[in-house]
Design brief:
Elements (H helix, E strand, L loop, with lengths): L10 H8 L3 E3 L2 E3 L6 E5 L6 E6 L3 H18 L4 H17 L1 H12 L3 H20 L8 E2 L6 E9 L2 E5 L5 H14 L3 E5 L6 H10 L8 E4 L3 H10 L5 E5 L2 H14 L3 E4 L5 E4 L5 H11 L14 E5 L3 H13 L19 H16 L3 E4 L18 E4 L6 H4 L6 E7 L2 H9 L3 E2 L1 E5 L3 H10 L4 E4 L14 E2 L2 E2 L5 H8 E9 L2
Parallel strand pairs: 7-8, 7-10, 8-9, 10-11, 12-13, 12-18, 13-16, 15-16, 18-19
Antiparallel strand pairs: 1-2, 3-4, 5-6, 6-22, 11-21, 14-15, 17-20
């Protein structure tokens, strides 16, 4: 634990410092090919750094380092591993502002409302999992009085982790921290849109962990992600991303017969009953739709069903509240809403808005675009609230991953439960009501892995998180997730006769 890193809260300078590098075996290195790609500030369109463009050769090097390091790492007592991971959390806490500003620069997420919060959860996840090391327990099995029969938990080996760009720090932490505590070593591939902050986190962790325990690669899916999933020395894959890519990952993992965890897409319903507290429900829609994140969330409450008694007032108040959010420079403390992550995503979201209008929906565009000339090329997009839209229109059925929600009027409870469940996805859902019986009934019947009543919290350590149906396989963020996804159970029988 050398503690040699110094804080650097200038994100532009830090981006240049990290430019063009992977981190393998504790050292910043260029890609084997020497190739790089641009990292763009989505608020201005300016290139702020280069990222190393990884391929199979880089994957080989990173996995080899992880294999070598795991031999000693797994032999360390579990509590000692836990202490080191908790120390990682403490170091990350010291770097919270630095990481928040860097992730705001490369993703366009507003510093005050999004990036600083995410950097805090990142550190908390490492502290949380560091404290669970003593829970890597087996069982005593009453098989035969003449035989001592026990189970033990052992690490899998090398874990390949592929993370998304929307909340790269938090979602990485929920994969990396439990894997390390359980005795595995890790190779993480960052999203090509957001490699810098992930690299900085890797650098901070490598100031604490033995070399090779945590390695980081940047690059594109076919060139870098696919070789990682297919690598013969990777024993477990954990992936967060699109359904389409998740299926490819799952197929490759199945061919190799290795375990895989998938956290995929969502089209989350939010039901507002006629007796709901209007102000709380509107606030829940703002947080649930992740408007301050430009709706770039797999749990976004993008299908909102409001009882006829509240519908008009709900739409009016939600529109008023979203209009009051300030869109602007993500690094400005006054900014509520930042940008879309990339040009491709920007065009995709605009396409959904156009499709919704074409399908007959009424598009209410909210929040004013920034007027600063320095932001003229930024990927700023007004949030859109659709009303009077067909329930089979593309914005109402498909995951948009942008600041677009559809509001539907309902009168019958049974109908709205059926409609809420009428989706290929099953990640998250919320119900807003003052009636306990209705709340309990809906919580039981809503087909989602993460159901909330009268609130819309984001994912937190110690809250089991993961979807059903096309939203994924496996849960994250808990002790059980660490045991089930990052260890293998071995049965040992000792004949005492």
């Amino acid at each position: 634990m050398s503690g040699t890193l110094t804080l650097n809260t200038d994100p532009f300078a830090l981006a240049k410092e990290l430019s063009g590098k992977h981190l393998i075996n504790g050292t910043l290195v260029a890609a084997v090919s020497g190739q790089t790609f641009d990292v763009v500030n989505p608020a201005t369109g300016q290139v702020v750094a280069q990222a190393a463009k990884g391929d199979a050769a880089d994957v080989d090097a990173a996995v080899a380092a992880a294999v070598a390091a795991q031999k000693e790492w797994k032999r360390r007592p579990a509590r000692e591993r836990g202490k080191l991971v908790a120390e990682c959390g403490r170091r990350l806490t010291e770097h919270t502002e630095e990481l928040a500003r860097l992730v705001a620069l490369e993703t366009g997420k507003a510093l005050r409302t999004e990036s600083r919060v995410e950097a805090g959860v990142l550190a908390d996840a490492f502290v949380f999992y560091g404290g669970l090391a003593s829970e890597l327990k087996g069982e005593s099995v009453p098989f035969n009085p003449d035989m001592l029969t026990v189970t033990v938990r052992e690490p899998i080996g090398v874990v390949g982790a592929i993370i998304p760009w929307n909340v790269p720090l938090m979602l990485m932490a929920l994969k990396i921290a439990p894997a390390l505590v359980a005795g595995n070593t890790v190779v993480v591939k960052s999203a090509e849109e957001a490699p810098l902050t992930v690299l900085r986190v890797c650098q901070i962790l490598n100031d604490v962990l033995p070399p090779g325990c945590f390695n980081m690669l940047s690059g594109f899916g076919p060139d870098c992600g696919a070789p990682l999933v297919a690598h013969r020395n990777v024993g477990k894959i954990t992936f967060t991303g699109s359904v389409e890519t998740g299926k490819i990952v799952y197929k490759t993992a199945a061919e190799r017969l290795i375990p895989v965890t998938l956290e995929l897409g969502g089209k989350s319903p939010m039901i507002v009953m006629g007796d709901a507290d209007l102000d709380r429900a509107v606030g829940g829609a703002i947080s649930g739709m992740r408007f301050t994140r430009q709706g770039q969330s797999c749990t976004a409450s993008s299908r909102i069903y409001v009882h006829a008694d509240l519908h008009d007032a709900f739409v009016a108040k939600l529109t008023e509240k979203v209009n009051a959010l300030k869109m602007g420079d993500p690094l400005d403390e006054a900014t509520d809403i930042g940008t879309i992550i990339s040009r491709d995503q920007y065009e995709k979201v605009k396409g959904y808005v156009e499709a919704g209008i074409k399908a007959g929906g009424t598009a209410n565009a909210c929040s004013a675009l920034p007027t600063d000339p320095a932001l003229a090329k930024g990927l700023f997009l007004q949030p859109v609230i659709f009303t009077d839209i067909a329930r089979d229109a593309p914005p109402a059925r498909e995951e948009i991953f942008g600041p677009v929600c559809c509001i539907f009027k309902f009168t019958d409870y049974e109908d709205v439960i059926t409609e809420a469940n009428n989706s290929e996805y099953g990640l998250a859902a919320t119900i807003w009501t003052r009636d306990l019986r209705t709340a309990m009934n809906a919580a039981q019947r809503l087909e989602a892995g993460f159901v909330q009543v009268n609130q819309n919290l984001v994912v937190q350590p110690n809250l089991s998180y993961g979807g059903i149906k096309a939203s994924g396989l496996g849960k994250e963020a808990t002790l059980e997730a660490m045991l089930e996804h990052f260890t293998e159970k071995k049965t040992i029988i000792i004949n005492m006769t």
